[in-house]
Amino acid sequence: MAVLKPNQVGAEIERQFTKKNTKQFLKYIGEFVQGKAVSILDGAVGYETKLGKTIKYKIEGNTVRIFSNSPYALPVEFGTKPHIIRPKKAKSLHWKDEYTGEDRFAQMVKHPGSRAIPYLRPAVHLLKQDLGKVLKKVK
Fold first, then answer.
1. Range of the domain at 100
2. Mind listing the pLDDT tens digit for each residue in 74-101?
3. Which of 23, 107, 122, 123 yields a CA-CA distance of 20 to 30 A from 116?
4. Is the pLDDT assigned to residue 3 strictly greater than 70?
């Protein structure tokens, strides 16, 4: 989760805030970061992702909160170490083999881990680079 507050974007920019355009500015930040995060994520995997559809923003006072309610948002952003997957409610894990279409069952799976696909942090970084353009659109 990334949180940006007006006082975090620098004193020079903060001086340009007015009550009238603060909400518009925060909305633009939310839309910008949300859009860039989805674009980065979908571009990295080559198709529109379910995770991308869960990335939202919310304005709370003078704060923009960018978030996802997906349980795998953080593992995608930061990657995972190798780990063991065990069933939580069933006696075994079940999936369809993607090549043969056959049903597969296992008591546990040794997952090799997954590489990180950073999407939110780069989106915030792009916002920081693009703040001058953002301010021009708000005026």
1. 80-113
2. 999 999 999 999 999 999 999 999 999 9
3. 107
4. no
On the question of pLDDT at 116 being above 80, the answer is: yes
Task: Give ∠ CA 129-132-133 in degrees, rounded to 5.
Answer: 95
The b-or-e profile of 29-58 (16+ CB within 10 A means b, else e) is: bbebbbebbbebbbeeeeeebebbeebebe
The structural domain count of the chain equals: 2
Give the span between the Cα atoms of 1 and 32, in whole angstroms: 15
CA 118 centroid distance within chain:
8
Does one domain contain both 118 and 56? yes
What pLDDT was estimated at residue 23? 82
